């Protein structure tokens, strides 16, 4: 008897499996545990993947290589999956109830006489794969390759912007169109965030403004924030009480970045250079996020270098700054590095892909999801502690350059990633894509919005 088990990062369940004396492999897993197992039967790969669907249901996908057709089944509650040598039988699927759990028996045909080569213990993949979200979020078709600024409202609906439009990703409804509003050609939408009153803040990186967008009102929106001293803004984040807003910005060609904030609808204030340690420079600041308690501000920083005449990213980190009770930088506080993104994914791979950090979002338990532009992945890492700790890398099936992400859906646990699609060739124009993955905890933004909405 051989056995092995693997606890998957960020999930409450453990996937366990074992071989038996009758050349059978048994898997046990909970419905909310998303996993992917790969191994070989002879020269034929077998992949077993569970996809949580919510309400205690999940889809089990078996991918069995060239000689075995794929099959999908949906099950409920706790499940035991048994795979065994079929000895020439056709693939059959039966389902019986056993000790309160549903038992599924699958006979593979034809499997080599000896199945001793089925070595699952060396094949469990800790990193997960997201799924194409275009069917669930068809509104992505209304956006172009400059897609950015994902946001969620209290109902769990997801939104995003491109340089001209602000769109509901489920329905394709355009909530704000800069052309229809007759805004200047320099306008470039880059960020969005929902407010508890149902309105939205939409950032204009080109015109240095943030608008308050009201659903159903298609005229020129009210300007909520503006400053000619802003580099953009590129992204923004809102505190749990909805009264504090923080902004990020950058200028690519000059390696510059800035961060600003507004408290209680007050004036914009810049977070000064005095908040950095000697020798520490926050350069291009892009993603920005707040901790759940509002006492830490997170910001990305990336540095370019000129390589063969072109500017290319060469390093990237996420820094944290302690805030006081009012939301201002705490007295004497300095930005400190939480995680080195190039080290987390492997420096050689990061340099090869041109990894550039973009948007990031926290869940309600302090797990950060960082979009890795150019790298076709999202990094999940734990912010609980003085320094961050890598949890896992999530591979994206349709997106090459993720720009932003947010958690939504009915339970707030669907991580939706937007960005530039993977291309078949370099000449193909940039297009907007959306991927999705189920995560263990609801997002911070939707959790805060629902709390505020319940108070109103």
From TrEMBL:
The keyword Hydrolase applies. Keywords: Hydrolase. Pfam families: SGL (PF08450). Residues 149-417 form the SMP-30/Gluconolactonase/LRE-like region domain. The keyword Kinase does not apply. GO terms for molecular function: hydrolase activity. This is SMP-30/Gluconolactonase/LRE-like region domain-containing protein. It comes from Linnemannia elongata AG-77.
């Amino acid at each position: 008897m051989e056995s092995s088990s693997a606890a998957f990062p960020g999930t409450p369940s453990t996937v366990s499996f074992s071989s038996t004396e009758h050349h059978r492999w048994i898997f046990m897993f909970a419905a909310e545990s998303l996993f992917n197992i790969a191994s070989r039967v002879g020269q034929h790969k077998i992949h077993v993947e569970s996809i949580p669907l919510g309400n205690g249901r999940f889809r089990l996908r078996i991918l069995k290589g060239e000689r075995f057709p794929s099959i999908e089944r949906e099950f409920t509650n706790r499940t035991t999956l048994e795979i065994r040598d079929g000895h020439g039988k056709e693939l059959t699927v039966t389902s019986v109830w056993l000790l309160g759990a549903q038992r599924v028996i699958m006979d593979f045909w034809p499997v080599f006489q000896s199945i001793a080569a089925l070595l699952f213990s060396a094949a469990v993949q800790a990193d997960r794969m997201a799924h194409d979200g275009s069917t669930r979020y068809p509104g992505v078709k209304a956006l172009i390759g400059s897609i950015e600024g994902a946001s969620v409202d209290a109902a769990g609906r997801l939104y995003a912007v491109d340089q001209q439009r602000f769109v509901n990703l489920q329905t394709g409804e355009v909530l704000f169109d800069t052309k229809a509003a007759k805004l200047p050609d320099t306008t470039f939408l880059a960020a969005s965030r929902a407010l508890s009153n149902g309105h939205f803040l939409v950032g204009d990186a080109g015109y240095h403004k943030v608008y308050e967008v009201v659903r159903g009102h298609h005229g020129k929106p009210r300007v909520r924030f503006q400053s000619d001293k802003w580099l953009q803004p590129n992204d923004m984040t809102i505190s749990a009480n909805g009264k504090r807003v923080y902004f990020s910005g950058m200028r690519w060609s000059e390696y510059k970045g800035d961060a600003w904030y507004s408290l209680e609808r007050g004036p914009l204030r810049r977070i000064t250079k005095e908040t950095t340690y000697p020798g520490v420079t926050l350069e291009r600041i892009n993603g920005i996020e707040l901790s759940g308690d509002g006492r830490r501000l997170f910001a990305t920083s990336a540095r370019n270098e000129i390589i063969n005449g072109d500017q290319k990213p060469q390093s990237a980190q996420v820094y944290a700054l302690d805030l006081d009770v009012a939301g201002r930088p705490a007295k004497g506080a300095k930005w400190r590095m939480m995680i080195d993104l190039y080290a987390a994914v492997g420096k050689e791979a990061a340099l090869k892909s041109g990894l550039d950090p973009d948007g990031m979002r926290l869940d309600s338990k302090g797990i950060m999801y960082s979009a890795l532009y150019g790298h076709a992945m999202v990094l999940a890492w734990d912010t609980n502690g003085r320094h961050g700790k890598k949890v896992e890398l999530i591979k994206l099936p349709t997106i090459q350059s993720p720009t932003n992400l947010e958690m939504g859906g009915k339970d707030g646990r669907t991580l939706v990633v937007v960005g530039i699609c993977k291309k078949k060739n370099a000449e193909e124009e940039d297009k907007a894509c959306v991927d999705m993955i189920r995560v263990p905890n609801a997002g911070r933004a939707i959790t805060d919005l629902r709390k505020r909405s319940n108070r109103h």
